[in-house]
Amino acid sequence: MTDFAKTRAFFDLPEGIIYLDGNSLGPLPSAVPVRLDHVMRLEWGEMVITGWNRAGWIDMPRRVGDRIARLIGAAPGTVVVGDTLSIKVYQALASALDLRPDRRKIVSDSGNFPTDLYMAEGLIRSLDRGHELSLSAPENLEAAIDEDTAALLVTEVDYRTGRRHDMARLIAKAHQKGALVIWDLAHSAGAFPVDVSGLGADFAVGCTYKYLNAGPGAPAFIYVAPELADRVTPALSGWMGHEAPFAFDLDYRAGHGIDRMRVGTPPILQIAALDAALDVWDEVDLADVRAQSVALSERFIAGVEAACPDLTLASPRDPARRGSQVAFRFEHGYAAMQAMIARGVIGDFRAPDIMRFGITPLYVGADEIDRAVGILAEIMATRAWDEPAYHRREAVT
Ligand SMILES: *Cc1c(COP(=O)(O)O)cnc(C)c1O
Q1: What is the pLDDT of residues 343-372, one digit of tens each?
Q2: Which position among 35, 163, 164, 210 bears the catalytic label?
Q3: Mutate which of 113, 155, 156 to test ligand 1's pocket (most atoms within 8 Å of Cβ)?
Q4: For 233-265, how does the pLDDT look when each residue is reduced to its tens digit (9 = 90+)?
Q5: What is the mean pLDDT of residues 375-379?
Q6: Is 184 a known active-site residue?
Q7: Does 199 reside within a domain?
Q8: Distance 111 CA to ligand 1 centre (A)
Q9: Pocket of ligand 1 (CB under 6 A)
Q10: Distance 81 CA to ligand 1 centre (A)
């Protein structure tokens, strides 16, 4: 059994704050500043450029990729870390289209995160080979996959409502039609058990600053199924993905396996932060995290529905169809969230009317859930949200 009192002690949570936004930016693990101080002073500071070899910086994208592999059901040597998720989506999609040259359709849904769709649009423009991005409603996604589908680009959990796709069904349908699957794990990795190899995903991508707590701007990761890894042609053919970067050849030859998904110089400080942030997962069984997330989410929904009649549940009621967040709709959701933040409960808001609450058992327990419900109930009952200061929109909501 996972000891959630122990996992909580891994984090430096701000005093007096109830943090329900770990689905957007995980809090600071206390091991991270210690590790960064070490890397900066003793590695970068003392070793300078020799750190690439002596401190093993050059292998970090693979080594830390292996630690993520364990969390998503991937074999060692199939995941690499680097760049941002938008870039990893582009890479995976470009590879998939390349592997299905006779097909023209990229299938996705309107619940996907916009950057995934924007990257697809940009790739279609650059290729200029008549590809089409076919968007359906999430509930019609499975039916939209057909014989002309090159790639299914699917984010498992909807960033607004927390609605979770049935990935086993979607992957089976895609493969039956001969399409490749790119599974975006942005709201899955670290939220519940994931099995990319068991379900046969062709590509999987995700970020590390949400449930994996690696800090703002932390690098993304990409998984390529082992049987495809030596066949994909990297669209972003950077020198770090070359077979022999330090041969400095004038022509590009893709590196072996997942290494070819590396692009340029890896962000060592941020990967070191990720490496330290991943320590907590050595103590954790993801099945326990999922069970606790469901229990806390049910408790939160029941509490809010009992106390706040003006809020409507935007997430699926069936926990099996939710990720690890709960969303409510309220016309003045932005202001209500600002009022909550002013009272020390941090969630966030997604236009036009969604109040989002991340449920992250590593550092949130039943006591925080109950106190958050109490504070929200008080704000709604007193209309405390209706203060001009709470209606002023900031750049990041
Ligand atoms: C958070 C998120 C992103 C963010 O992409 P970045 O390039 O890291 O900014 C992309 N896709 C999905 C589905 C997300 O949830």
Answers
A1: 999 999 999 999 999 999 999 999 999 999
A2: 210
A3: 113
A4: 999 999 999 999 999 999 999 999 999 999 999
A5: 98
A6: yes
A7: yes
A8: 13
A9: 84-86, 113, 115-116, 155, 159, 184, 186-187, 207, 220
A10: 15
Which of ligand 1's atoms lies nearest the C-alpha of 87? Answer: 7
Q: What beta strand segments (E) does the chain contain?
A: 18-19, 79-82, 105-109, 132-136, 149-155, 180-184, 203-206, 220-224, 312-313, 325-329, 345-346, 348-350, 354-358
The question of whether 209 is a catalytic residue gets the answer yes
- Catalytic choice (4, 209, 357, 390): 209
Question: Domain for residue 120, yes or no?
Answer: yes
- Residue located via tokens 């599974």: 183
Please check whether residues 235 and 362 belong to one and the same domain: no
Domain that holds residue 66: 32-282
Give residue 303 CA to ligand 1 midpoint distance, Å: 30
Same domain, 189 and 338: no
Given the residues 105, 164, 322, 356, the one annotated as active site? 356
Model confidence at 394, pLDDT cuts 50, 70, 90, reads confident
Q: What is the dihedral of CA 40, 44, 46, 47, to 10 degrees?
A: 150
Given 282, 306, 330, which residue is the final one in a domain?
A: 282
113 is catalytic: yes
User: In the predicted model, is pLDDT for residue 386 greater than 90?
Assistant: yes
Cα–Cα distance measured from residue 397 to residue 127, given in angstroms and rounded to the nearest whole number: 34
CATH number at residue 39: 3.40.640.10
Pair (254, 163) in one structural domain: yes
- 301 band by pLDDT with thresholds 50, 70 and 90: very high
What is the tally of structural domains in the chain? 2
Using alpha carbons, select from 28, 362, 64 the residue that is nearest to residue 220. 64
CA dist., res. 274 & res. 219, Å (int): 8
Single-letter amino acid code for the residue at 386: D
Residue carrying structure tokens 């910086």:
57
